[in-house]
Design brief:
SH3 type barrels; Growth inhibitor PemK; mainly beta; DNA binding; Plasmid_toxin/cell-grow_inhib; 138 residues; eight-stranded antiparallel β-sheet; single chain; 8 strands
Length: 138
């Protein structure tokens, strides 16, 4: 389960590094499926793909994944808070996907339903560059 509806990305600036490894544990650079609550109604949500971009330790020393949600809705194409990552195995219909940059999700490790795919390094670096330049990530 996702811990919350998301956090402003600049408030969650962390180190970002590409380190995918389809070993059963989610790593930065992997697209995983998990439950994401709706911003306007935390009682509702849907299972969706999320790009893992890092990890965080909370006040109780629990590790959480940091992720950015994906959407295949074409209207995100012209939204500066979204960036295209192209197509991939995470979308069975082969649609172009967009990653939301301004909202970081904190996800419990056991909340990942399945690993979906590895995002190509060149595409991950495009996302990482925007996180560094626009939101203070390192």
């Amino acid at each position: 389960m996702t811990v919350g509806p998301g956090h402003p990305t600049h408030e969650f600036a962390r180190h970002i590094a590409y380190a995918p490894d389809l070993d059963g544990a989610a790593d930065p650079g992997e697209i995983v499926w998990t439950w994401v609550v709706f911003e306007d109604d935390a009682a509702r949500g849907k299972d969706r793909p999320v790009l893992v971009v890092g990890r965080d330790i909370d006040d109780a020393d629990r590790s959480h994944l940091l992720g950015l949600m994906l959407s295949s809705k074409d209207y995100h194409r012209d939204d500066s808070d979204w960036i295209s990552v192209g197509t991939g195995e995470w979308d069975s219909r082969g649609r172009e996907s967009f990653v939301r940059l301004d909202r970081v999700l904190t996800i419990e490790e056991h909340g990942v339903r399945r690993e979906g795919a590895i995002l190509a390094r060149v595409r991950f670096e495009i996302v990482a560059t925007r996180l560094r330049s626009d939101f203070g990530w390192r």
